[in-house]
Amino acid sequence: MNRELFDAAPQAACQPDIGLLAAVLQDGTREWRWELEGVTEDAIVWQPFPGGHSIGALMFHIIEAEAYWVEMVCMGLPEDRALFEELMSEHIKQDEIQWPTPPRKPISYYFELHDEVRSNMLKHIETLQEPAAIRAREDHDVTVRWVLGHIIQHEAYHGGQIILLNEMFKRREALSVEP
Question: C or N: which end of the chain has fewer Cβ atoms within 10 Å?
């Protein structure tokens, strides 16, 4: 009997602690993405209230955070202006609960964009050899290990919101929420 095996084996080319965090992130992404099978473009752009969260905007936010924390904070690379424009970064004001309406595109567009940034992130972290290495920010310092843990937590939080939004969209009439 062939049974599927789930594991979080460390990314082979990485320092072991960093590789384990990368594997946990990859598994977490797999976990919430499978629940979006068959999600419609209407669901991707739907916002339960004007300026509210949407699946597409949250996907953009997840992707932006990953690029920011790994490429800019850990690696010291400059902002990828074209990427951040595509991700509508200047229009997302999460603390004010102001989210732009994302482009009406299939989920494959969002997944492919995320996969591209994730691939770059995995290549970058292969070069990081010290999990406790400190990176300075404006008002506090962080370690590489903390950055990767933060990305895991951040994606899990917003991945859960994405799943909830998809379920709300499917049941919006029963919830008396207009599209």
Answer: N
